[in-house]
Design goal:
The complex is a heterodimer of chains A (337) and B (592). Chain A is an all-alpha fold and 337 residues long. Chain A contains 14 helices and no strands. Chain A folds into two domains: 34-105, no CATH class; 126-336, MetI-like (MetI-like fold), CATH 1.10.3720. In chain A, α2 (20-55) packs across α5 (93-105) and α3 packs across α4. Chain B starts with a helix and ends in a 21-residue tail after the last helix. Classes of the chains: A mainly alpha (337), B alpha/beta (592).
Amino acid sequence: MTLTSSTDPALDAGLTQAPPSRSAGRTARRVLARVAGAVVVLWGAATVAFLAQVALPGDRATIIFNTRAGQPIERTAEELAAVNAQYGLQHPVLVQYLDHLRGLLHGDLGRSYQQYRPVTQILGEQVGSTIVLTLAAIALAWVVMVVWVTLTAGRGPRTSGLGAALDTVTAALPHYWLGILLLLLFAQRLGWFPVISDGGPVGLVLPALTLAVPLAGFMGQATRTEFERALEQPFVVSARMRGQGDLGVRLRHVLRHSALPAVTLSGWALGATISGAVVVESVFTRRGIGSVLVTAVNSQDLPIVTGVVVLVAALYVVANLVVDLVHHLLDPRLKAS
Amino acid sequence: MSRTEDVLADAGPTTTTRPGREASPAGTLAVERARPRFSVRGLDVGFTRAGTHRRVVSGLSFDLFPGQCVAIVGESGSGKSVTARTLVGLTGAGSTVTAERLQFEGRDVAEFSEREWRRVRGAGIGFVLQDALVSLDPLRPVGAEIDEALRLHGWGSRRSRARKVVDLLTSVGVPSPQLRAGQRSGELSGGLRQRALIASALALDPDVVIADEPTTALDVTVQAQVLDLLAQTKDRGVSILLISHDLSVVARLADLVLVMRGGEVVERGTAQQVLTDPQHEYTKALIAAVPGEHTKGTRLVPPAAGADVAPVPAPRRHEPAPEPLLEARGLVKRFATAGGLRRTAVDGVSFTLHRGRTVGIVGESGSGKSTTARLALALTTPDEGDVTLLGEAWSTVPETRRRARRSSIAVVQQDPLSSFDPRWDVERILLDSLPAGHTGRTARGARVRELLEQVGLGEEVLPRSPLRLSGGQRQRVAIARALGSEPSILVLDEAVSALDVSVQAQVLDLLADLQERLGLSYLFISHDLGVIHHVSDEVLVMKDGRVVERGTADDVFRRPQEAYTQELVGSLPRLADARPTTAGTSTTGETR
């Protein structure tokens, strides 16, 4: 790692900088390609979200009124025209679509039918809480998974079998059931954590754990196979022969070789746990995107639903860029390809 | 303490003892030899898996003295690597180790706690494994791997370790060591990474170095350099336990050679005794099986087991064979490299392969010999030059016009396993190889059995998966598959390189028989000079895509004209290099 930064920095610099200048151009091209891909994904998500609004049966202005009133009421043409003008619904679909895209470029996701407020404002209030929950869940899942796999993988048929079995069982646990179980045990019976999850870190523990446990099992399944394969590699033997202990080999050599699939899964999990958050947020009465989405879907508040779709797509894109970066950090050989 | 005679007395009934051993040079190093660094008596190692116990090492005994090299030679499954790992307490899961005596520096290793073992490994005993590409962590710079050995044993500060790593790389002859320390094993050539691995084993000046096949994956010139490096280490008083399948590799270095088969030592003695005057049948067969100039035109395996080992001349045609089957003229092939540059892999290669003859192409990795094979097979088209097959254009015509002649040229590769569909059994593999014209279930079945018979396999292998065949059987199936279309030319691309020497001998004999019976022509590609000398009528020596020398096998190898060929032939370890019995004599040259 820091080995090259030794006695003679001038020599080192001269020796190491010659080849990367070419690969710097490659890296720049790769980053540009990724960004272009990300833009395409976001555009696709925005388009699908728009089409979903247009394709809904019935007159949109009527739907907006009904959403606000909570019941179907006949409206006069003047009333409808006012709403059409407010939301730009009197224009042809193509113009509406371009307006929709233009709004997105300016960070405008439209206005909620029900709450009379910009969608960005509504989501902005809630998104922080969900992202904190999701990141905490992923971090917790990594800790649980790494400890469990490191302790049990490749330790003879009985221990490894137990490890793998627990991976499978936890991966299959439903969030809803697990959340209620944790709530009953740790919040109600033992009283260690609050029943209603507020903004504080203590309240975060149970919801994050609910999301983390199945994820840890899922990532553990992928990691364990790679871990056991890496343990058989000759470089592990040669590290042992150098005096490296078993735990040292596992943490310093093997883990890095087996982490790639779990990193890929983490990128997917960032998006998936946001949808998982719907259940968890309602179980733990926690504010967040999930509860907003549920309310919006129930009341047909479409701008919010499409806003969430675009937001989740953006998060996916960011997550995948991060995953790509981490891949290259973990396995520098990937640069070659 | 124990003298050398004890080794012989304890060696057990399966060992061919050598009464002459006490006349050995013990006197010259008597003082240093007062105490062996390793002392092993009656070592048994077994593995219990799925309830069955299998013994892999039986009654092994030897002493390893300061400045001495003990070599364990054997083929795969002989227990030699297990022995090496047992000596550092890493035999593996499910193993049982018992010994009358198993001492390191006078201490019984059974008393070592895991903590003590970790102090011994790396500091007291350095270990060099085969093929540094997989024996060094491919994700970390080699400098970090060498640093790990220092760090684990509490050597110095981070900065001083960084300097030490560079010093170590310098001492094993790695050029621009500071740059290399920051590169990963995949970015280094085979020779450089093997040196880096050796540097990590020598980092803390261990008294003992255990080298398990340290040169097996290396080109012959690089192998010579690595052996020189080990010889220098030995001259500094380090004891070396050298493990190899290759008798000629240990010849230069070893003071004592143990020949192992099936976990037992069948023969022991000084390198010179074992290699030039073997006593045990197995050692004799092993030495006879090594192809080279002395085996040319002979069988490598005696016809009947236990029969006289005198070579039986294999029939060989000497009349001129005018009919050229495959002609390559001025082949050039360039590849684009990652940096946008073009590398010339094959540069002006020409050869003519006549019916019933063998053209051998020998060269080190990256010399362009495999690309030449692909050009001959028209799997890739040359940038310049052309190939004609059976008198008609081959490389310049479209694939549709080649298809009819595809059946006349077939290929056998180094690792047949990866070229077999693992879900297919042998029968399906062979049926698939038959040309479409072969119709009728019974006719096809008969042809498959004929192919098996030709390669010396029985029908019992038909329902088996290639995964469950031995390396030799697998290569025979690959040959049978190549013969399925009744070709007149076989391209053999390192076809025997992955095989144990005795299996390699059988396959080479089989190829000689097939050539005789079927009148086949071989384009034989190998990095192994002995193999090429043994099989070839005409030899091409390749380096960096060019043919640097060509001629008859005897001319090229006995009277090499070009400097490169001379270096190749000179680097080749030979049985005749066996060290004279005086330990401590330098056989080394300066490493570059």
